[in-house]
Amino acid sequence: MARPVVIAQAQMFVGDLDIWDIWLGKLCRLVIDEFHRCSSTTGVRQFATAPQKRRCWVIYLTLRSLGQSTSLASMIAALWDTPYNIVYLVHIFSVILGVGMAFIAPMIAVRARRSSGHAMQDLVNETASKIMFPMFLVAGIAGGAMVGLSGQGAGDKAYNFQQTWLSVGGALWIVILVLTAAIYPPNWLRVFNIGEDRKAMLGGILHLSLAVMLVLMTWKFGR
User: Fold this and answer.
1) Over the stretch 36-84, which tens digit does the pLDDT of each residue have?
2) What is the pLDDT of residue 130?
3) Residue 218: is its pLDDT beyond 80?
4) Can you give the pTM of this predicted structure?
5) 97 in Cβ contact with 210 (< 8 Å)
6) Vertex 93: Cα angle to 223 and 205 (nearest 5)
7) 16 by DSSP, 3-state: which?
8) What distances in angstroms separate CA 170 from CA 93, 107, 110, 140, 210, one per listed residue?
């Protein structure tokens, strides 16, 4: 690899970098200047004959790897995205548990009542009560935290509650919490006294609300 070719490659990879901080810009210029001062014109191996040329070659390979794989900005962004990803994981996990229990619990309760009587049905409802409301509560709080975290250096990609899908989703989340507290209230939140017939109707509204919420979270209308 002749010197002009190496210089051209160095300039190409420098141009691919996304970050132009002062120190990185100076480092890029230093690499190109060092190549220009190198007296070798034969090949890569002779760059390791002098400490200065060896240092220049190491810097060049570092910049080349940055240019080929990912930029410094992407690496820093990945580190900053860690809190967001953790909250996102909590949000998704809570949604899966809450929504899954909301749709499965009624079917299990009916089968339990037919096979083992009301005692088993009450056990199913009690289990659902311990899971659904806390999971929906955590899912909503984590979702709100994601909106706040998304605004840290995200620019136009940041979420905010002025977006239609988040505004409607927030109101729908409150409705879901109220319905869940009425149908499957946890032991520490028994504020409603509703008959079984009314619970069946509210259960249908809860399922519809959850379906609409999932559609909003998937397509993000009005973003």
Assistant:
1) 555 444 444 444 455 655 666 666 566 555 554 444 455 445 545 788 8
2) 93
3) yes
4) 0.64
5) no
6) 65
7) helix
8) 18, 28, 31, 8, 12
- pLDDT, tens digit, for every residue of 198-217? 999 999 999 999 999 999 99
Is residue 193 helix, strand or coil? coil
8 Å CB contact between 179 and 199: no
Among 19-23, 33-37, 188-192, 200-204, the range scoring the smallest mean pLDDT is 19-23
Q: Distance between CA 50 and CA 38 in Å, rounded? A: 10
| 51 alpha carbon, distance to own chain's centre | 45
Rounded CA-CA distance 37/173 in Å is 66
Separation between Cα atoms, residue 111 and residue 93, nearest integer Å: 27
* List of residues 6+ apart from 136 with CB closer than 8 A: 94, 98, 173, 176, 177, 180
Contact between 185 and 133 under an 8 Å Cβ cutoff? The reply is yes
What span, in angstroms and rounded, lies between the C-alpha atoms of 118 and 122? 6
Dihedral in degrees, nearest 10, Cα atoms 15, 20, 26, 27: -60
Q: How far apart are CA 139 and CA 134, in angstroms?
A: 8
Closest C-alpha to 91, from 223, 214, 215: 214
As a whole number of angstroms, the distance between CA 50 and CA 78 comes to 37
Q: Is the dihedral of CA 76, 78, 84, 87 positive or negative?
A: negative
Q: How far apart are CA 20 and CA 151, in angstroms?
A: 23
